[in-house]
Amino acid sequence: MTAATVSFGTASPSPSNASLSGLDGVNFFLAGILAGFGPYLAAYLADQKWTQENIGFVLTASGVAGLLSQLPGGELLDTVRSKRAVVVAGVVMVAVSAVIIAFQPSFPLVFAALMLQGITGGFLGPAIAAISLGLVGHAALPERLGRNQRFASTGNLVTAALMGLIGYFLSYQAIFLTVAALAL
After folding, report:
1. What is the residue extent of each domain of the chain?
2. What is the 3-state secondary structure (H, E, C) of the chain?
3. Which tens digits make up the pLDDT trace of 133-157?
4. First vs last Cα of the chain: how many Å apart?
5. 98 with 44: CB under 8 angstroms?
6. Is pLDDT at 1 greater than 60 in this prediction?
7. What is 17-183's CATH number?
């Protein structure tokens, strides 16, 4: 039996401030674009004359898609060299989902959009963790993950408030267009 040596999280001793600040921004805005699908989606779909059963079905299906995509998402991250490309793909998927929901709130399209958005959950969080590990290494990872969560929570709070104001003063549709704009 041969023992294999694997190097995990071998990062430079001190990543650049630009890299760390960039990761802070990604966590802030990623939480922001994902917040748009939270409490506002059910209200928007109800405003579009959807039944409670259909709203519950598409939201549940999205959650199940997120759960089922975790294993293949982890496998994808293990095989893909560029974790940043995976994050970009996930952000684009969320933006496309938001545009579909804003302009075509029919059952099949919203179902497809929410499945697409749910699938992103299987790899966005782990991709951010993998990028963090690559930047700071194992020793500093717990602190970095805490910082990631602080920026994600702040982004969620700020964006939820912003989207609430947009929904109140403009429309529910404008919330989803804001999600797409934030993804840019």
Report:
1. 17-183
2. CCCCCCCCCCCCCCCCHHHHHHHHHHHHHHHHHHHCCCHHHHHHHHHCCCCHHHHHHHHHHHHHHHHHCHHHHHHHHHHCCCHHHHHHHHHHHHHHHHHHHHHCCCHHHHHHHHHHHHHHCCCHHHHHHHHHHHHHHHHHHHHHHHHHHHHHHHHHHHHHHHHHHHHHHCCHHHHHHHHHHHHC
3. 999 999 999 999 999 999 999 999 9
4. 50
5. no
6. no
7. 1.20.1250.20
